[in-house]
Amino acid sequence: MIKVLIVDDSALVRKVFAEELARDPLIQVIGTAPDPYVARDKIVQLSPDVLTLDVEMPRMDGLTFLRKLMKYHPLPVIVVSSLTPKGGDMAMEALEIGAVDVMCKPGEAYTVGEMSRDLCQKIKAAVNSRLRQPMPVAESSVQARPPLLRTTLKIVAIGASTGGTEALKEVLTRYPANAPATVVVQHMPQAFTKAFAERLNGLCAVEVREAVSGDTLRPGLVLIAPGNMHMVLQRSGAVYSVAVKDGPRVHHQRPAVDVLFRSVARHAGPNAVGVILTGMGADGAEGMLEMKQAGARTLAQDEATCVVYGMPKEAVAVGAVERVAPLPRITDEILTML
């Protein structure tokens, strides 16, 4: 049984979460807490395996508590935030501090049933996750590389889930300003992807933004698939663009890595590099195999540097991965493969 402690100032949220999690035979809610002070005492008394944490609470906000927790008593934390721009910004900060994953509270765009399914999945992934440690800065020759602009546009497609926000930051902050056109699917709730893209844009030499249908790809541009929407690659002559669209969930995900990778296989073929980073589940494995079969180069993050070695493991298992590398080497590997 996975022991879970729920921390939220709303009695209704605590009740709903506890009732929904109780339906899963592998999860035991061992307690709830209305604020970080009560949570601190219950963590000592009950030794939970996983914590769910609200970020907007009285007495002490969730981010302050998370910083203290990661410093003095680190354990897997899933942050639960409101589906608002402010909630998105706070969720991104929580991931930087050390939360394993984020999710949004149920509302008009996110039902209790969807929340229950996603939360159970995230808890099961979190209990086996590797708490993130600061990554050593790898020696890189990126700045010394010749310009990447070529007659045939190259496309990099990246997929990630649990732990992916920090892994993507590691990869994209190492990109030179004229890095190859890049499309990214990170499993993340609606509204959070915009905050994520804006945060990366302020850190990277390349332009990073949330994708909009019709965006044309070019060197130096990274497009992040919007939460709750699929993103696919399109081609007209020598021009690549993206379409953002609705559609059924794939591997319980929207956006799904498989949807993106399959479109890249179809329209870019050997002009692409596929990359799969840390994350739970199998999303991306079959799509990466299609990319490889279409002539693309393929790369996966190694187990030792993954927060959750799920998606890369499945991609390796189906024979989709040409090369495996630790996270600090992923950017150089991408540029070498082009």
Brief description of this entry?
The protein is of the alpha/beta class.
SSE ordering: EHEHEHEHEHEHEHEEEEHEHEHEH
Q: What is the gyration radius calculated from CA atoms?
A: 20 Å
Going across the major beta sheet, what is the strand order? 8-9-7-6-12-13-14
Largest sheet: 7 strands, parallel
Number of DSSP strands? Answer: 14
Tell me the quaternary state. single chain
Low-confidence stretches: 134-151
Q: What does the overall shape look like?
A: elongated
Mean pLDDT: 91
Percentage of residues in DSSP E strands: 15-25%
Structural class: alpha/beta
Q: Helicity level, as a percent range?
A: 25-40%
User: Could you give the distance between the termini?
Assistant: 46 Å
Number of helices, counting only DSSP H or I runs of 4 residues or more: 11
Describe the 3D structure.
This protein is α/β, with parallel strands linked by helices and 338 residues long. Helix content is 34%, strand content 22%. It has helices at residues 11-21, 36-46, 62-72, 85-97, 112-127, 164-172, 192-201, 257-267, 285-293, 311-317, 330-337; strands at residues 2-7, 27-33, 50-54, 77-81, 101-104, 155-160, 181-186, 207-210, 221-224, 230-236, 239-245, 272-276, 297-301, 323-325. A seven-stranded parallel β-sheet has the order 8-9-7-6-12-13-14, sandwiched between helices. α3 packs parallel to α4.
